[in-house]
Design a protein that fits this description.
16 helices, mainly alpha
Length: 376
């Protein structure tokens, strides 16, 4: 099974011109979607209730709505695949085939990634609510390290020394952007005191730093969860791609994601708030745009995993750092600091090093007989 997954990965990397065009199209779409989604989500979480008494929308309800939309879209695409494969079947027969495909004997394998995906989405909302757009976008690229690690474990992927150097540079770039804010000595002392001692009445600075620390913990947990679930889903899709379509797997994933999103997120975590304010409290055009971008992003990610792999998908998402960095400076008036600019440049260098291949060494030509004689 491991060799089968490896052959699929190698086949995707050695694709023909048409497959290569599809890969690049999917990755470009992911760059655009990810850049826009982060800025819109940041605005929706921090500005949606500004100047009004209406509470901010609940992340748990948004996660559930995203999964419902993904389920419906994937269901339509899966039904289209089945209708193309069985053009002579009528509607009841196609519905029966779709049901059998979705609830097949191995559909239970999607339960674990479904639960982890729901947890990841919730952690992303927590992180984006406590971090600025640039810090979240760059720090979230730690998922590349987790993805590579789980790709080595589950897919048997090999990483060269040049690529490991790129990963180290990537981590350094993330750290530079993370500490890009200008903190004096007293700020650092108060931050360390609040983290090590705790308790007491926090000052304004301590409260801000604790929220930032909470956001960093959330984005770290989301990165690890993303790496594990993405590689597991990639292995599952590519191992069964000849018998189960991509959109059928997406239907299964979204269907099983509804249960933890509903039971844990909506009912258990925010049940009281929903009963008090309503399920769609705080929803507006920006919130619905955020939900739509996340749902479409789930479909784009599925395409990237199928036609490329998770590592390429995450590096494409990393490229959106530059887009978000420039756009945040223009839209949100975020100041461009030397640390942030240098960190983004190092991230881009890491992307280049990871994907570039060292030039082959020139072959040594055999010595002529006269040259051999002159050597002696």
């Amino acid at each position: 099974m491991l060799s089968n997954a490896k052959s699929h990965v190698e086949g995707a990397l050695a694709a023909g011109p048409w497959q290569l065009a599809v890969q690049r199209t999917c990755l470009i779409m992911l760059v655009v979607q990810n850049s826009v989604m982060v800025m819109v989500m940041h605005y929706s979480r921090n500005n949606s209730s500004a100047g009004s008494s209406e509470p901010i929308y609940l992340a748990s309800t948004a996660v559930l709505v995203v999964e419902v939309i993904k389920l419906l879209l994937s269901l339509l695409l899966a039904a289209r695949d089945i209708s193309l494969a069985h053009p002579k079947s009528n509607a009841p027969e196609l519905a029966a085939k779709l049901y059998q495909s979705v609830f097949s004997a191995d559909s239970w394998k999607l339960i674990v990634p479904a639960a982890l995906y729901t947890l990841q989405n919730s952690l992303v909302y927590v992180a984006i609510s406590n971090l600025d757009a640039i810090t979240f976008q760059v720090t979230y690229q730690i998922k590349i390290l987790a993805t590579v690690l789980f790709s080595i474990i589950l897919l048997g992927r090999r990483i060269s020394s040049r690529q490991w150097l790129a990963l180290v540079l990537l981590t350094s770039g993330v750290a530079m952007v993370q500490v890009s804010g200008s903190l004096d000595l007293e700020d650092w002392k108060e931050r360390l005191t609040s983290l090590l001692q705790g308790g007491g009445v926090p000052s304004a600075l301590t409260t801000a730093r604790f929220s930032r620390f909470k956001g960093l913990l959330a984005v770290l947990a989301a990165s690890l969860t993303s790496g594990l679930t993405c590689v597991y889903f990639e292995k599952l899709v590519k191992d069964s791609l000849s018998s189960v379509s991509l959109w059928t797997r997406n239907v299964q994933l979204s269907f099983f994601s509804l249960f933890p999103a509903l039971l844990i997120g909506v009912l258990w975590q925010d049940g009281a708030a929903i009963c008090r304010d309503g399920f769609f409290a705080g929803y507006g055009p920006v919130v619905w745009l955020t939900i739509a971008l996340q749902a479409v992003g789930g479909l784009i990610v599925a395409l990237c995993i199928t036609y490329a792999d998770n590592v390429a998908k995450n590096f494409a998402a990393s490229f959106s750092i530059v887009v978000s960095y420039a756009a945040s400076a223009i839209i949100f008036r975020t100041p461009l600091t030397l640390h942030s600019t240098g960190g983004a440049a190092i991230v881009l260098l890491a992307i280049y090093l990871f994907n570039s291949r060292p030039s082959p060494r020139p072959a040594l030509l055999p010595l002529r007989e006269s040259e051999k004689d002159s050597k002696h």
